[in-house]
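call fold target=Putative TIM-barrel fold metal-dependent hydrolase
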Amino acid sequence: MDQPAQHPARRLLSAGTRRARDVAARARLQTHRLAGYRPRSELVLPATEVPRAAVPAVDVHNHLGRWLTGGHAWLAPDVPALLARMDELNIAAIVNLDGRVGDLEANLDRYDRAHPGRFATFAHVEWHRVAEGPAGTATLVRQVEAAARAGAAGLKVWKDLGLLVRDERGALVRPDDPRLGDVFDAAGEAGLPVLVHIGDPPAFFRPVDRFNERLEELTVHPDWSWHGRGVPTHAQLQDAFDALVGAHPGTTFIGAHVAGWAENLQWVGDALDRHPNLVVDTGARLAELGRQPRAAAAFIARHPDRVLWGSDSFPFDPDAVARWFRVLETADEAFDYGPVPDQGRWTVSGLDLPPELLRAVYADNARRVVPALAGPPRAPERDQAAL
């Protein structure tokens, strides 16, 4: 039997009541602080422990020196203990990116020379010398050459080139600045791969507002935001990096942090297609790759010889490193990418890479790209005056 039609006034009252309840519910929701919200997943899923890498691995992106402590302390204060942890995790070698000018010899003595084959230290140069004109550029070239003679395994370029370094007119200097061309050519001639940290995640260049997926991280670290600071956009920096690689085909470039754009694997893959002298490392991008596991696995399969594993875990944390093994080796779904997911509110899933890709990503690609890891160590020459 048909139900009697509801009186219009009662329908209006019912809708009004619903709206009032919705408003009250939203008001209650707004009283909860997002910073304290830590939802616990109700998913019941298998969890695979992977305490060791499937093959002896090379961590191609890490920090063991004194650069990031302001020169005060070694990030690996106990080298024998570090080696023991490496053995437990099946890590054969680590690339140390902390060979700053004036500190390169100390890093080489502590790591590369003391433990041949286990460490490979990359050197830095003093980019601010570009403000000295042609004489400054010549100094940079000499620093590259001296680093190679000393036994450095590569050249590290940090994000200050493009975001902080200025020339004699006060203008920001981008990585593809023609004035720096001789420096990158010198690295190629010396057989040094150049690892470039270009920019930062794209969210760091956007307004720090409710639309920013890394709002909480940037709220905790407001100095990490580049928005409104008069620097190039994320896209402009990526274009500068692309131009840099294209302008120096005789130099091997390692695009750190998945070439600066792990959120856009199509762009990175296209760059790899354009530039045979480019490879990428995965440093500090577990959360980004793990939240797009099918796309990430397809990206690696498309470029099996161009992706190098790096943890960027410093001080060296065995638990953080082992999370990489779970992401790369298993098909586990929807798990936290850290003890406290501090980059964004998402989970990660395993890429489930096959054995041949794991061998390439973990070790084979790094040993091909970094000559110092491919064979016996070179006899170093001290050139302290130039360093």
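return ok
The domain at 57-373 is CATH 3.20.20.140 (TIM Barrel). Confidence is low (pLDDT under 50) at residues 7-13, 376-387.
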